[in-house]
Amino acid sequence: MSGYPSAQYTAPGVNKSFSTEGVPLDSLTSNGSTSGPSPYLLQSTNGTYVDKDKPSDLNLDSSMGRLRGYVTKLQDDINVYLTERIKETGNDALDQESVLEQDVEEDSGEDQDIESTNSN
């Protein structure tokens, strides 16, 4: 096992590994390509949206700064992969039947006291 952040995605028939080993330091950023305001938000505000949650600049001179950059890279890689997977399959991996079953279960418990349904 390397000292670099990595992740494993597993689904029926799919096994995908993500690693940041070998990623050059100068390509790291704290402002990932899949984070920040969505294109919809930017369009609906005519480009005037100000991202108040924008991350601060990355400090590559510290181990925590480098880790932050690697984790942002890993998050971007995973987000891009899963977005492409959704586009390929035409859904979000939830089949319509399971969504309908969940809705029926939620609807049947509307009159229950919230505390009585909490298992904690």
From TrEMBL:
GO biological process: tRNA processing
Localization, UniProt: Chromosome, Telomere; Nucleus
Keywords assigned by UniProt, alphabetized: Activator, Chromosome, Nucleus, Telomere, Transcription, Transcription regulation, tRNA processing
Biased composition annotated in UniProt, kind: Polar residues: 27-48
Record's GO cellular component terms: chromosome, telomeric region; nucleus
Disordered: annotated span: 1-63, 88-120
Source superkingdom: Eukaryota
Keyword Cell inner membrane: no
Any Pfam family hit: Gon7
Stated family: Belongs to the GON7 family.
Protein name as it appears in the record: EKC/KEOPS complex subunit GON7
Source organism per UniProt: Pichia inconspicua
Lineage, highest ranks first: Eukaryota, Fungi, Dikarya, Ascomycota, Saccharomycotina
